[in-house]
Amino acid sequence: MGEEDETFTGRGDDAIELLHELHDYHHEMKTTKSEPRALETLGNFLTWKALEELLSRPWWTRVWTLQEYLVPSNFTFWCDRSYISRESLNKALYVVYKLTKLSVQGNRLSAKSWYPAWSRRRLRHWYRKRSDALPLVALISYGSESKATDPKDRIYSMFNLAKKDDEPSLIKPNYKKDFKASDAYIDFFKAFVKEHDSLDIMCFVHIFNQRCRGSKSVGDLPSWVPDWTAQVAASVMPVMASQASNPSIGNFRPFRRRNEHQSVQGYAASGHHPPRYTISNDKKILTCIGTVVDVVQSIAGTRNESCLNLPLSRTTASIILDEITRTLLLDREDKYLNHPSSPGQFYNDFRALCRAAERNPESIPDSFFHWFRSNQDLVILGHSLKEICRRSLKRPAFASPPTDISTQRRFLDRFEDTTEGMMKMLVTTTSGWVGMAPKRSQQEDKICVILGCSIPLVLRKRATPNGGKKEYYEVVGECYLSGVMAGEVVEQADAGYLKYEELCLL
Q1: Do the beta carbons of residue 249 and residue 241 sit within 8 Å?
Q2: Can you tell me whether residue 46 is helix, strand or coil?
């Protein structure tokens, strides 16, 4: 660990002792089928606090120490006068992860303290068993909690981890004083598009965006370039473009699932079209070819009184509710976006939760209750979400007891993946459809399919520079919209039913 961490306090000894105890318990967990041991038998309050202090030290989030942790074949972790091997530490962290699933653990160790160490455990597991290097974008995004004195190191520090020894880097590190971090990020964007013939890197903008976080640590970046200094929680699937079938982006799903992409159906909004684009000489404007699909009409918290209380058959309500359910989960049944959801899957779970939000709110998680309260008046195809839920029919083929919330855990996990992890919200469009757009989307934003980007993007009109006649847009982020995710729009445009146009992005 760093020099400032070497002062002897004795607290480090307590923390290492507890880690050894957790390592021993890992063996017990793997060899017996007994119930999890009571927390009180694993250390005491003071030793858990010592561990929290240890895992909260800056070393765990320094971007350059990631290589120290991953690369050496042997690694011993010292604190005060005690030590633990990396392998034992990783097993102890697995126990911490398991224990935090128990409610009684919540007051002992905060997720904020142990999660950076847990992220490194996941990375080490991948690094030790990898057969192919993961793309640089995946490493940068998963290392989003890492901090660097020089913002350029958010990408430079990952080079040797992301590529094979005999592969050239996408870009070369440049530490000259007149070369800004914004220049490095733009150059990486250009190199990615050239290397992979894809604009999918733009999908990270709504997650890695300092503009909406009130910070400009790397200067004034164009809206189409991710700001990799944005401090966000690490996620194995940060954006839809991280789907398993997208090798240019990659993700950190468990290693045992790394080969599942061979039979996976992925999103392909722009079909097989390569990007058609130009970047201005001043690196401020990206001009690309695409088509406007729809316009955001309503978002959470809005309503249209004239649409309410119209006749709605129970069959129609059920059809609409099924479409809403699929949209909420991005039409995927698993968090790694590997497999499309089956017709009717999760329908009864969503319906039961919505009805419970009105009748018995204390029986459901607060996160879903607050979401329903914000969206219940959202008008979809002429009817509020609340009325659609009330009029819908339960489907016998997918029946589950509405009072047994444990049966809905899988749906809730997926729901949280999209609404919290990917920071998306339910929206409606002028054509009457529903979609999942970035939470900072607004009414009148345009939903577009851009050639070379597998996910539709939400664009917002910006003021025209120098009073010109062209329209310019800001990239808000990626979006799910049913009926356009498999290339349907570009097929219509290729046939002449829709028009392609130049989209100028600032």
Answers
A1: yes
A2: helix
Say whether 255 sits in a helix, a strand or coil.
helix
Q: Specify which residues 427 forms β-bridges with.
A: 435
- A 10 A CB-CB count for 46 gives 11
Mind giving me the DSSP string for 319-373? HHHHHHHHHHTTTBSSTT--SBPPTTTTHHHHHHHHHHHHH-GGGS-HHHHHHHH
Counting every residue written for the chain, the total comes to 506
C-alpha Rg value of the chain to the nearest Å: 25
Per-residue DSSP letter, 467: G
- pTM of this prediction exceeds 0.85: yes
pLDDT digit string, tens, across residues 368-427: 999 999 999 998 988 999 999 999 998 875 544 444 445 688 899 999 999 999 999 999
The pLDDT tens digits for 255-293 are 665 555 455 568 999 999 999 999 999 999 999 999 999
Nearest-5° Cα angle at 121, 118 to 126? 135
Which token pair is 44? 């005491």
What confidence tens digit (pLDDT) does each residue in 392-401 have? 998 875 544 4
